[in-house]
Design goal:
The chain is mostly beta strands and 103 residues long. It has no helices and eight strands. The strands form three sheets. It has a three-stranded antiparallel β-sheet with strand order 3-4-5, with no helix packed on it. It has a three-stranded antiparallel β-sheet with strand order 6-7-8, with no helix packed on it. Strands 1-2 form a two-stranded antiparallel ribbon. The protein is globular. The mean pLDDT is 79.
């Protein structure tokens, strides 16, 4: 569960977000997610979940693989496309809160 003092103007609300990645997908975890990364994140560096923030990762066979690229941005954006290339999900987390669009 994610608990934040002020999330888009609502106080003390909880959000649970489970992100399932397929092998080969790349993920950039922004530093502003440190306070919400509470569950173990299996990775090849044995980093705690909060230490995974700020870096670029690729989903491997046995968890996240470190790509050694610090993330300079202060936001997370995730786009998911189906096999045809149509965007099905857009997730954005930044200083203004969380935006989720599905199609």
């Amino acid at each position: 569960m994610v608990s934040r003092q002020n999330l888009n103007g609502f106080q003390n609300k909880k959000i649970e977000l489970i992100l399932n990645l397929s092998e080969g997908q790349v993920l950039s975890l922004s530093n502003n997610l440190i306070s919400v990364l509470n569950y173990p994140v299996k990775n090849d560096q044995n980093y705690s979940s909060t230490k995974t923030a700020g870096y670029l990762w690729k989903m491997g066979n046995n968890g996240l693989e470190y790509l050694n690229c610090p993330q300079p941005k202060s936001e997370l954006q995730l786009h998911y496309q189906d096999n045809v290339g149509d965007e099905k999900l857009h997730l954005k987390v930044d200083k203004d809160g969380i935006q989720l669009k599905t199609k």
